[in-house]
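Contributing new records

If you add data, match the layout below exactly. Sequence lines come first and carry their own label; structure lines follow with theirs. Keep one chain per record. Anything else will be rejected by the validation script.
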Amino acid sequence: MSRGRSGARRSRSAGCLTLLALGVAGLVIVILLWYLLAGCLREPPPGPGPGPGPEEPTSQPASCPDVQMISVPGTWESSSTDDPYNPSANPASLMLNISDPVREQFPTDRVDVYTVPYVAQFSNPVAFPPDGQASYNVSRTEGTRRTFDFLTQRHEECPLTTYVLAGFSQGAVIAGDIAEQIGKGNGPVPADRVLGVTLIADGRRSGEPGPGQPIQVGTPPPGIGAEVALAGLSVPGITMTGAREEGFGEIADRVYTICAPGDLICDAPRNALSPANIVGSLGTLTAAVGNPVHSLYHNFVVEPDGTTATQWAANWAVGLVEGAPQPPHS
């Protein structure tokens, strides 16, 4: 009788262990699927490097612009199918306050303005039910790839064209990452072809001075970028890559950064976001994308005369185009 009860207990224990093992296996599968569906962050391979060297051509095709401006919109300001020459995915896009004045002031043979079309979304990974948006990793990867590929193709076709890059929010991260590669000599265009870069609300802003760091427009706020505050965090769909440790290298003297105090995307208090508090930090980060400070750079004054961030950036870009070389065309 005792042996029978003992056997029954062993059988029940084995059954419980089997159910537990199945539960753990199911949880692992769910987490793996979560990661796979959310997507990984993929960086483009190294670019062609410094250029053609001593065989550099003395002219370029007549279809090539003297200057190529690249505008990278922020989160919820673009779409994968948007028209790069007539962007309309979000008529209120902050970057239109910068790119439109440039487009209106010059003929297309002087400057071509290309607005990068990409999904430009930021799904909340802890939202239940899911919010139906593309993850940050998927969005950032697509934006980076499209920017990188366009620059590579343009430089192959137009080796004497010079470049102006500008981006806002997620677009600033994308433009800044490509500028970092260019400054290190492995980007899609040579460093000496870049006239300047402006990053508004850059999530990878280090908040530190020193070699390789960008020039701050206006009074620098005390915080750091959200990706720096959350450096090393990796959850489904969101990979926080930290600061650009080597800075912008050869082009650092032409890279500008603008950050409004209180904008958690670029001015996060150093201890406000923590990988140890993933849910709370991600909730704060997701909310920061749409907070009033982050969305009102067209009103954020950066100079004593009342010039706002977008006015400054538009004037900066116009000035670069006015002073850019005029390469011969064939």
